[in-house]
Design goal:
33% of the residues are buried. Strands 2, 4, 5, 6, 9, 10 and 11 form a seven-stranded mixed beta sheet that branches. The protein has a four-stranded antiparallel beta sheet with strand order 1-3-8-7, with no helix packed on it. A hairpin with a 5-residue loop joins β5 and β6. By secondary structure, the protein is an all-beta fold. It has no helices and eleven strands. The radius of gyration is 13 Å and the shape is globular. 0% of the residues lie in helices and 47% in strands.
């Protein structure tokens, strides 16, 4: 089994930055694509960013140019650097692990058999 634990969420002012971490245990992330999703109350969980095991990356249009996903296989950890945060970025953020290495499939929830418990991000003045 694979366990994922997100951290780094919190309250930040508009225009500010946060870095989320997803620490993985139980299995190495080397062969997995990793994704960050977010979910607001009453809304579906949507992909924010994903990175394949070879380092190919895709972003949702709403965060491209502001968010950066990265992975450190040696630390079995995935990161999401979030800059120029907006109130509409407020959500619970989840990390997931997927076996697919196809970028277009990494937008799909069903590709991720493993999920963390989430970390809350609030962007407000």
């Amino acid at each position: 089994q694979m366990q994922l634990v997100e951290s780094g969420g919190g309250l930040v002012q508009p225009g500010g930055s946060l870095t989320l971490s997803c620490a993985v245990s139980g299995r190495t992330i080397n062969g997995y694509s990793m994704g960050w999703f977010r979910q607001s109350p009453g809304k579906q969980r949507d992909m924010v960013a994903a990175i394949t095991s070879s380092g190919r990356i895709t972003y949702a249009d709403s965060v491209r140019g502001r968010f950066t996903i990265s992975r450190d296989n040696a630390k079995n950890t995935v990161y999401l650097q979030m800059d120029s945060l907006k109130p509409e970025d407020t959500a619970d953020y989840y990390c997931g692990a997927a076996l697919s290495q196809i970028l277009t499939r990494l937008y799909l929830l069903r590709e991720y058999p493993y999920w963390g418990q989430g970390t809350q991000v609030t962007v407000s003045s």
